[in-house]
Amino acid sequence: MATKNDPYRINPSEQQGALPGRARVFMPKVTMCELFALSSRDPATVTLSLDVFAKRGGLTGPHKDGWGIAYYDDGDVTLIRDVAPASESPWTPFVADRQLRSHMVVSHIRKATTGAVCLKNTQPFTRELGGVRHVFAHNGFLNGVEALFDPGNARCRPVGDTDSEIAFCILMNRMAEIWGGDAPPSADDRATVFHAFAGRMRDLGPANFLYADGEFLYAHANRRHQADGEIKPPGLHTLARTCPVEGGSLADDGFSIGSLNQRVVLFASIPLTDEDWRPLDEGEVVIVGNGDEWGGIA
């Protein structure tokens, strides 16, 4: 069971076939947004709990300016967002009760740095491109990003007024150049565009972001506000787990992940357990699909 001092737990009896073992969580205080993402071989149940994860959105943490979660499902995205703190949102128990399953999930808890606290500024953001739903979430701030956005030639325009959504639209407009055919572009072409975009964004400020196109999940790590008050790497952490058929469960009080014979790659702003999460280097890009890291361009 979880405790107030150990809010994340791994409980082998709760769900068959998910991540085995047990790990204790430590949660440093932060002042930027928080990111979470999952890529799995088989659809996984990801439960957002009102008890702990929601408290980080307004009670135990400063992230009180809205939250959201996006699940890929049968070629589309289930997107749930709310401007209320997650600790007060009626959507939080709804998500927990629905037991939604997906092979790719992106979630965000907001601490506003630019833009009003309203639904149009609440992440994750999503757009259609090439008949596919694309999802984006960003942690940090991007000074002067609006100067890189050309509304006259934009396929994608921001609905709100955050630097994060402007960055997403810039990425979508660049991706539109390769997503115009009858078939999705090659993995190499997509990775090339993403790498170039990431390099440009990190020149503007802390640029940790997660991007998904339904087939691949892209993570870019930069810098973030750390527990000692400094803005420095790591901006993201990652953990890869292979789950045996015979049992085990990851049932932390923020996310529960369960499936048989599973392979899962997780990304989080802060390590969720005391397992061997790998901090991503400043400027590092990781691309995963179906729970495996893609071995394309460096």
Describe the structure.
- With 298 residues, the chain is of the alpha+beta class.
- The protein has one domain (34-293): Aminohydrolase, N-terminal nucleophile (Ntn) domain (Glutamine Phosphoribosylpyrophosphate, subunit 1, domain 1), CATH 3.60.20.10.
- Helices cover 13% and strands 30% of the residues.
- It contains four helices and 17 strands.
- Strands 3-2-4-1-14-11-15 form a seven-stranded antiparallel β-sheet, with no helix packed on it.
- β12 (250-251) and β13 form a beta hairpin.
- α3 (163-175) runs antiparallel to α4.
- The longest helix is centred in the middle third of the chain and has 15 residues, at 187-201.
- The protein is globular.
- It starts with 33 loop residues before the first strand and ends in a 5-residue tail after the last strand.
- Residues 1-32, 49-58 and 245-249 have low confidence and may be disordered.
Write the layout of secondary structure elements.
Elements: E1 34-45, H1 53-56, E2 67-73, E3 76-82, H2 91-98, E4 101-109, E5 125-129, E6 132-140, H3 163-175, H4 187-201, E7 207-212, E8 217-220, E9 224-225, E10 231-232, E11 237-242, E12 250-251, E13 256-257, E14 263-268, E15 278-279, E16 285-289, E17 292-293
Antiparallel strand pairs: 1-4, 1-14, 2-3, 2-4, 5-6, 6-7, 7-8, 8-16, 9-10, 11-14, 11-15, 12-13, 16-17
